[in-house]
Amino acid sequence: MKIQTKTILIIILIFFSGITIGTGGTLMAEKIIIRRTLENPERARMHILNRISKRHHLSSEQTMAVQNILEEQAREFRSIRTKAAPDIEKVFENSHEKIVDILDESQRKKFEIYHRIMMNKFRKIFYSGMEFSGDQNGNQDSDNIESKSGS
Fold first, then answer.
1. pLDDT value, residue 123
2. CB atoms inside a 10 Å sphere around CB 117
3. 3 state SS of 5
4. Phi and psi at residue 65, in whole multiples of 5°?
5. Interval 132-149 mean pLDDT
6. Distance of alpha carbon 81 from alpha carbon 58, whole angstroms
7. Which letter does DSSP use for residue 134 in this model?
8. CA separation for the pair 52, 19 (Å, rounded)
């Protein structure tokens, strides 16, 4: 009887481990896909165009029409992002000031590096290639802040 109980418990453990690993892998993949899409909207647009074209057997004229529609959509999204970005940036800056106020000097230095990196990533996505002022360290890895801050 004990062997049968252990076997059942092991099967249940394996089952739930599989669910956990599968969910984690899916979330990581989605995060990567979303980041790549935001960083390269043209690539995403071409992917959408190809999928629509293949799935619905579009003629070359229809494919061109869909491409034009997607390009117009991209211009509209870019315009919305450009208009909204300054307001969003103000919200980030207000939060930044409040966070800085509660940090000690050591924490503040690390946070300033992190904040600069994240704001550059934000600008890269929202301004999509437009010029912006500020520190150009956006290529630094935000997960490796500690080694870049000298600690």
1. 81
2. 21
3. helix
4. -65, -45
5. 38
6. 31
7. S
8. 32
Residue 9 has a CB neighbour count (10 Å cut-off) of 10
The single residue listed with the structure tokens 């049968």 is 4
Confidence of residue 1 (pLDDT cuts 50, 70, 90): low
CB 37 within 8 A of CB 45: no
In 3D space, the residue among 105, 143, 136 whose CA is nearest the CA of residue 121 turns out to be: 136
Residue 2 tokens read as 């004990």
Three-class SS of residue 130? coil
What pLDDT does 108 receive?
94
Structure tokens at 67: 């491409």
Q: Looking only at Cα atoms, what is the longest distance across the chain?
A: 71
Model-level pTM greater than 0.85? no
Q: Is residue 12 helix, strand or coil?
A: helix
The ranges assigned to domains in the chain are 1-39, 40-148
